[in-house]
């Protein structure tokens, strides 16, 4: 009876103190924890609904389970799910759960402490060392319904929160009246404050000297995360989920870098990329034919701007159909000739692939139908949308035959001997995007009305000979492949089974009672219908946010199948948590505006340092709308400090290859020269992230976590731990107000010291072909003594060491080298450099014999600037030299 009384009292309190604006939610009395079992390393309990179900946004689930496990010293796993295990959970095949080493776990006390109140149930997580509360759900009752889950944590006032992407808002999130919606969307022009292409339900809470922690919610359902203050001024963060379970990983830090590394333990270490992937890439939508593509290659060469990789957008396709070539404008023989030509010159070629397959007379469709791999409606009919080629069907990545299908399409179309021998892959439209508005009942009519596929530009005869190009561009013929149409087949192939976490039956999968702030309107608008059921029984409603990442993973497999020993490079638009373990990301269809130029820095930092997708970059010079000479010039320089460096442009916009303006060409030559000299420094730091999760591209507060002045900065960043990049960010400006942390820095160009005081310093007279760079004291940067036209050439250049002594007079640095492209490296060079008392020395692993040497050492800050000392140190054994 005590229980009942307490219960009533709690209910009253809940009503009186409720801060929720919705009256109906106030009737939800939460849950009561019973059968609590505490054990070393964890706890479990049953949670039983208190009072009558409130059934606000779907039926309340009456019996829940709570499992708590201290998985490592720094990671706490808390999961709340339905006792019957019918509610959908993210499948392990898509997001492999981290392995838990129970023995290791018990060696030291965990850094986080879980506590709970039993009725109404709430839980809290605190930092053991200082008692700091990290998460506390006691302010409102847990709501767990079949189409709505609500959990709120209180937070300190004015918290420094980061993450919850993908978004184009400031790196440090707004904390009042702010909603982050996660529902992957084809988000043309990446507008601020809206849901974009990816879903990363992870935030960092940085509290300066008391530490940083991370909270990752493994949930792929649509959601709104509200960050706001309640009526009484209490700061909170609230999850509003359209389904799934509450599967939390709390990461203790205590530094931002450590939180990032702990997240990598959960989401997977990022994939290593080939060395050449860091070269400069050129792309655009709207190259009219293979001659124009070849002309761009030729023009880059003439302008003396190193071009590593040429790309082609959907222009190469016949009527925009994947796995086809436009026979007039991109005939196979000429495409192959261009690829051969590029390969002979140590350059590469990349094209785009979309997931949607044209519903028409083409082999990719026919073979897919034979294997029955396309998504179907619940009545068994084929589901159709309308994308670039017009009416399309969509592969079901959960179908057991889809891997064979996809790998086979890649093997045929991208065959090295007879097809388009690409070096890496670009995948797009995989949210999945569908141009056709919900309910898209007539995709054929929609395609016709919207000119899909768009009319290609008219084919041209061979326009002129291209200087330097061999006899490759002669007219050639290719037989059209004719395919017989196979009849439609299929029935609802799936039978529901209880207890398999496949999703509760009887939900409204199209218009759930709770509405998230999806910028595309209703859930299924502009994408695949959310009521489709995949071959394994999962609903698109639950798995929508996984579609792009599943396509990415399988496309990586398909690339590996073509070149089993080589690291694949796959650049995707849509991502889910953990995608970085397999693929890279570009920031989507931005605009050629100063605003997007600025935003690109915060976006890049979020992906690299928080979401563990370190191979990332924006469309340099901007995608849609016309760029300007000055913007393109500044972006050519900023882009050189993006991990992924690609100029890309929208159909119909003015040309923006770097050689189009002399000032931009000059900026690009200078930026690429610096980037290439630094390439091994970057490669080393990137490699370290793939092994340890330590982010290599850093917001300032990651390096100076105790300096409050750094917390909000997202227009400057550290490129590797040693180089501070402070780009000019305003139109027409030749100056920038740059924050210098309390430390010693040196100007990259002059070696002159700058003593930072945790204040802003105005850097001025920065021409349109310059970008301010400063080396952090305490660093040694190995650079290539000269740049080169390709990364293949670059790898033959000797090294130079730049030594930037710290406030204590010392410095350290690292160099990692391998063959640049193999998945497994038989031999490596892993060197640590140290500088102390005017002596530089190095040692490490030298199994990779490169024949390379260090030819000089530059010490910054000496003689008022820099002093260069010629040396001759082979990088084949430990060495050192006194610099006097
Ligand atoms: C959680 O918040 C409640 C209400 O403010 C407070 O009473 C409780 O002590 C907090 N729990 C922890 C562990 O901080
Ligand atoms: C390449 O350069 C030539 C000569 O400047 C120019 O006429 C042509 O338009 C350029 N082509 C492309 C695709 O940039
Ligand atoms: C779907 O999107 C279109 C274009 O943004 C919009 O006009 C329409 O209202 C949306 N429909 C729904 C049902 O959300
Ligand atoms: C871009 O510039 C071209 C050429 O000046 C012009 O025709 C076009 O309308 C411009 N487009 C936009 C979006 O401003
Ligand atoms: C690139 O090649 C051109 C032409 O051969 C040459 O003049 C230039 O110096 C090369 N650039 C670099 C950075 O090696
Ligand atoms: C949010 C934003 O910047 N949107 C802009 C993106 O670019 C388009 C085209 O220039 C503009 O119309 C949008 O306002």
Question: What does this entry look like structurally?
Answer:
20% of the residues lie in helices and 26% in strands. The chain has 884 residues and is an alpha+beta fold. Among the domains are: 2-267, glycosyl hydrolase (family 31) (Immunoglobulin-like), CATH 2.60.40.1760; 681-882, Golgi alpha-mannosidase II (Immunoglobulin-like). It has a 9-stranded parallel sheet. An 8-stranded antiparallel sheet has the order 1-2-3-4-16-13-12-10. Strand 14 (223-229) and strand 15 (235-241) form a beta hairpin. Helix 8 (402-413) crosses helix 11 and helix 13 runs parallel beside helix 14 (662-677). Mean pLDDT is 93; it is low at 1-23 and 474-493. The structure holds 2-acetamido-2-deoxy-beta-D-glucopyranose (6 copies).
Helix share, percent: 10-25%
* Counted beta strands: 44
Q: Looking across the biggest beta sheet, what order are the strands in?
A: 26-25-24-23-19-18-17-28-27
Summarize model confidence as the mean pLDDT.
93
Number of helices: 17
Q: Per CATH, which architecture of the domain at 2-267?
A: Sandwich
Annotated CATH topology of the domain at 2-267: Immunoglobulin-like
**Main sheet, how many strands, which sense, barrel?**
9 strands, parallel
Shape designation: globular
Instruction: Tell me the span between the first and last alpha carbons.
Output: 85 Å
Structural class from helices and strands?
alpha+beta
Determine the strand fraction and express it as a percent band. Answer: 25-35%
Radius of gyration: 28 Å
Bound molecules: 2-acetamido-2-deoxy-beta-D-glucopyranose
pLDDT below 50 for ≥5 consecutive residues: which ranges? 1-23, 474-493
In the CATH scheme, the class of the domain at 2-267 would be Mainly Beta
What name goes with the CATH superfamily of the domain at 2-267? glycosyl hydrolase (family 31)
């Amino acid at each position: 009876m005590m229980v009942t009384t307490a219960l009533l009292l709690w209910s009253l309190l809940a009503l009186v103190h409720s801060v929720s604006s919705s009256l109906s939610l106030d009737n939800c009395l939460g849950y009561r924890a019973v059968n609590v079992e505490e054990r070393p390393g964890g706890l479990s309990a049953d949670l039983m609904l208190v009072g009558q179900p409130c059934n606000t946004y779907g039926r309340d689930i009456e019996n829940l389970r709570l499992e708590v496990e201290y998985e490592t010293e720094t990671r706490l796993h808390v999961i709340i799910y339905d006792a019957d295990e019918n509610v959908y959970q993210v499948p392990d095949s898509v997001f492999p759960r981290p392995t838990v080493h129970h023995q290791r776990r018990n060696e030291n006390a965990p850094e986080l402490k879980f506590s709970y109140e039993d009725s109404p149930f709430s839980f809290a997580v605190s930092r053991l060392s200082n008692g700091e509360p990290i998460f506390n759900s006691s302010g409102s009752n847990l709501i767990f319904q079949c189409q709505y889950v609500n959990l709120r944590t209180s937070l300190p006032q004015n918290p420094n929160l980061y993450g919850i992407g993908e978004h184009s808002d400031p790196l440090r999130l707004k904390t009042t009246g702010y909603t982050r919606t996660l529902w992957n969307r084809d988000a043309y022009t990446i507008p601020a404050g809206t849901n974009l292409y990816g879903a990363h339900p992870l935030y960092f809470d940085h509290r300066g000297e008391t530490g940083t922690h991370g909270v990752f919610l493994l949930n792929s359902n649509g959601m709104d995360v509200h960050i706001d203050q309640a009526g009484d001024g209490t700061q909170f963060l609230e999850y509003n989920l359209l389904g799934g379970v509450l599967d939390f990983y709390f990461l203790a830090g205590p530094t931002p870098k450590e939180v990032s590394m702990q997240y990598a333990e959960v989401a997977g270490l990022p994939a290593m990329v080939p060395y050449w992937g860091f070269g400069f890439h050129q792309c655009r939508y709207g190259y009219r034919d293979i001659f124009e593509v070849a002309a761009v290659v030729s023009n880059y060469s003439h302008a003396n701007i190193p071009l590593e990789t040429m790309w082609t957008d959907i222009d190469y396709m016949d009527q925009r159909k994947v796995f086809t070539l436009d026979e007039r404008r991109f005939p196979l023989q000429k495409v192959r000739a261009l690829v051969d030509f590029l390969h002979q010159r140590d350059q590469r070629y990349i094209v785009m692939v979309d997931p949607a397959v044209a519903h028409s007379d083409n082999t990719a469709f026919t073979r897919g139908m034979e294997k029955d791999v396309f998504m179907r409606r619940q009545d068994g009919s084929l589901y159709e949308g309308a994308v670039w080629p017009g009416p399309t069907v969509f592969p079901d990545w959960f179908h057991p035959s889809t891997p064979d299908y996809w790998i086979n399409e890649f093997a045929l179309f991208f065959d090295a001997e007879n097809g388009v021998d690409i070096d890496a892959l670009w995948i797009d439209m995989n949210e999945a995007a569908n141009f056709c508005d919900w309910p898209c009942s007539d995709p054929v009519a929609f395609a016709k009305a919207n000119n899909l596929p768009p009319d290609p530009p008219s084919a041209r005869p061979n326009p002129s000979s291209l200087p330097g190009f061999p006899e490759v561009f002669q007219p050639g013929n290719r037989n059209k492949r004719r395919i017989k149409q196979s009849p439609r087949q299929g029935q609802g192939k799936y039978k529901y089974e209880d207890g398999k976490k496949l999703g509760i039956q009887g939900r409204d999968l199209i218009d759930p009672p709770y509405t998230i702030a999806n910028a595309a309107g209703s859930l299924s608008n502009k994408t695949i219908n959310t009521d489709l059921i995949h071959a394994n029984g999962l609903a698109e409603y639950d798995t929508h946010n996984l579609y792009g990442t599943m396509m990415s993973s399988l496309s990586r497999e398909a690339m590996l199948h073509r070149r089993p020993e080589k690291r694949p490079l796959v650049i995707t638009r849509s991502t889910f948590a953990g995608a970085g373990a397999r693929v890279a990301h570009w920031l989507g269809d931005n605009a050629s505006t100063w605003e997007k130029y600025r935003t690109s820095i915060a976006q890049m930092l979020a992906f690299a340092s928080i979401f563990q997708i370190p191979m990332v970059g924006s469309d340099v010079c901007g995608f849609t709308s016309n760029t300007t000479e000055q913007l393109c010039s500044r972006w050519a320089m900023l882009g050189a400090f993006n991990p992924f460096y690609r100029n890309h442009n929208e159909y119909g916009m003015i040309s923006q290859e770097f050689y189009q303006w002399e000032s931009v060409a000059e900026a690009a030559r200078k930026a690429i020269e610096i980037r290439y000299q630094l390439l091994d420094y970057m490669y080393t730091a990137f490699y370290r992230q793939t092994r340890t999760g330590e982010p290599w591209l850093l917001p300032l507060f990651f390096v100076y976590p105790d300096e409050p002045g750094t917390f909000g900065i997202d227009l400057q960043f550290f490129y590797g731990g040693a180089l501070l990049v402070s780009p000019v960010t305003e139109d027409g400006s030749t100056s920038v107000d740059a924050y210098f942390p309390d430390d010693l820095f040196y100007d990259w160009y002059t070696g002159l010291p700058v003593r930072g005081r945790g204040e802003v310093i105005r850097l001025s007279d920065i021409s349109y072909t310059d970008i301010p760079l400063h080396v952090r004291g305490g660093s040694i940067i190995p650079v290539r003594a000269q740049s080169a036209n390709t990364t293949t050439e670059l790898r033959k250049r000797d090294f130079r060491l730049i030594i930037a002594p710290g406030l204590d007079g010392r410095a350290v640095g690292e160099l990692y080298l391998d063959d640049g492209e193999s998945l497994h490296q038989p031999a490596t060079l892993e060197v640590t450099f140290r500088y102390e008392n005017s002596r530089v020395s190095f040692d490490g692993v030298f199994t990779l014999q490169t024949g390379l040497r260090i030819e000089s050492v530059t010490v910054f800050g000496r003689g008022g600037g820099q002093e260069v000392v010629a040396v001759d140190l082979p990088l084949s054994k430990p060495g050192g030299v006194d610099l006097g």
